[in-house]
Every structure is written in structure tokens, then in C-alpha cells.
Amino acid sequence: MRKKNLIVTLMMGLSVCLCCSSCSHDSDDEELEAAYYDDTNKVVEITSKIVEISGIRYELFDDHFEMMGLNRNSTLRSGKKTICGKIHFRGKDYPVTAIQPFISRGNYFTQLTIQEGVTTIMNNAFYENTSLTTITLPESITEISYNIFFGCI
Fold first, then answer.
1. Are strands 86-89 and 92-99 parallel, antiparallel or unpaired?
2. Which residue has the higher pLDDT, 47 or 108?
3. CATH number for position 56
4. Which of 79, 22, 21 is nearest to 52 (CA)?
5. Residue 98: left (phi > 0), alpha (psi -120 to 50), or beta?
6. What is the pLDDT of residues 109-134, one digit of tens each?
7. 104 assigned to some structural domain
8. How many Å apart are CA 92 and CA 141, to the nearest integer?
């Protein structure tokens, strides 16, 4: 059986959100009726607490967002993905502080970059993503929970 390598790289000194120009959305709408996908890298408001950027969904809490998974209907579930470190939403900047459990189950992206600002990767985050070969972590990561790569190799 051939084993594959999973490369994990720590980014040094990267403190800008590479998608900041596209990680913003201003809206007075409290709730949108239907979920929809916009492939232009703009923030798409799914509900008053959930937004989507390039097929990646984020959940808004009081003072921060957490990455909650990928759009199951998105054609962008494979290839390279970037998790934002901050999101400009409704006139305010919010940090993205965590990656929730089981975000990649059934999603087979090959490369993942997590931007500066994210501090926590929760348990089983990349569960059974057998296509994942490269992940780049920022210096801001302070907590990595158990089994984050379970079933990847």
C-alpha cells in the first residue's frame, strides 16, 4: 500500500487577509429567504448568522465568525481553499477564530490555507478528506484539538 504525505506548513508573519477586498458585505436585510451561491468571491448572506465566501460557510457569533463547512451544492468543493482570518460584514470587521468539527467530510479539497487570526481547529475538522495533501497554518493557531486528520491518510 502506498502512503501519501500530508504537508503542514506554518506561515510566518502573514497578517493580511488575502481576500479582504472580497470578504465584505453591507446589507440591511435581516434574513434572506433562499440560500444561493455566488462564485465571485463576495460575501453572500445565507441567513442573518451565516455567510458564504467562495463556497466556504461561516457562522456569526456575538463578536466573531467560525468556519462551519463548505456549501454542499458548490462546484468548488475540490481544489484549493482559503479560510479567511477576518470578514467585513454589515460595516464591521469580525475575526474568524475557529474551524468547527467535521468541516471537510465529503469535501475533497487538496490544498488548504488558513489565514492569520484563526486560533482554534476543533476535533475531526478534516475528517476523511483523503484528497488533502497540503495545509498551511498561521502563527495565530493556539489550539489544535484531537483527530483533526482522522481518516485523511
1. antiparallel
2. 47
3. 3.80.10.10
4. 22
5. beta
6. 888 899 999 999 999 888 888 888 88
7. yes
8. 23
Amino acid letter, residue 150: F
Cα torsion angle, 37, 81, 100, 28, sign: negative
How far apart, in Å, are the Cα atoms of 58 and each of 11, 108, 117, 153? 22, 18, 14, 26
On whether residue 22 sits in a domain, the answer given is yes
**How many structural domains does the chain have?**
1
Q: Radius of gyration over alpha carbons of the chain, in Å?
A: 15
Amino acid at residue number 93: D
The stretches of 14-89 forming alpha helices (DSSP H) are none
Least-confidence region, from 1-15, 33-47, 106-120, 133-147: 1-15
Of the pLDDT bands very low, low, confident and very high (cuts 50, 70, 90), residue 106 is low
Domain range for residue 77? 7-144
Rounded CA-CA distance 66/23 in Å is 14
In which region does residue 43 sit, left (phi positive, over 0), alpha (psi from -120 to 50) or beta (all else)? beta
